[in-house]
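User: Structure tokens for this complex, please. No commentary.
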Amino acid sequence: MKPKYDIRNQIRLHRVKAGDMTQLELAERIGSTRQTIVSIEKGKYNPSVGLALRIAKVLGASIEELFELEGEEGDGNG
Amino acid sequence: MARLLGRIGWRPSRVTIIAGILIILGIVLTGVNWGFVFLVGLGMLGPGLLRELGWLKDQDEFQRQAARRAGYHAFLATGLLAFFFTALFRTGYRNITDPDSVVELLLAVLWFTWVLSSLLGYWGPRRTARTILITFGIFWLIFNIVGNLNSLTALVMQCLVAVPFFALALAARRWPKVAGVLLVACSGFFFYFFRLYRIFGSEPLAIGRGMVIVLFFGPLFASGVALLCCGSSDDPGERERGQSH
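Assistant:
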């Protein structure tokens, strides 16, 4: 079933903030592949909670700073 | 070999290389004894089996998701075809004289669907097309080198046929639509040239026609369609290769 929301992420922005970290560097530090980072940044793949937490830890950001809901469910009660 | 493939833009893992060698070895050795076809099975299914048993941990979660989704697609495609053949035979259709060809066709569809879907899910259309074309070219080279060792002229001439595959792989990177049109046109030409339209005739699976369609026409046509359907935002990794972010 297609979810009624999309997840937007700010990983790319936080990579720049973390000293211009490359996708490959981030991937190696979280034990993943560069293609996975590419797909997450493009919104083509939503990572598991575990992977999201590892990304957040490496980038020194919180999950909420990296990922946010957009669309129906992300709009709250409005 | 890995470095050469890397220059073209494809870096297969050690597991992929070993599996590929097993598949090629198995196919070549079937000329000696058909029992060696089991090597092909080991190459095709072995890595996945080891991963499911937890003995091989070479993939991250995105790769595993792509592989499992591809497995479901392969199940759907092969299941549909198996039911089609069951219905055909149970209703008295007897034009397929060689039952082996049906089993081999089912295996080919299973493998082709899985490979195509997992590549598309993981890499996207452009890189999938390139990988298919490069694999195609390498397979062509290997089989022609093995088959024409006694004649240098034949060897060179046959190997030249692989050049367009590598050229199209390069073109797919920069001009995906052009490469897509060329691939669909090529696959259409092969369909006509090798008389593959006879699959709709009285002896549909004679002389390995089904296998040729799946393993020869299929990759070219699928690559072409994938390239034609890919949008400008697809395959982000292509544009960002080697860049910081």
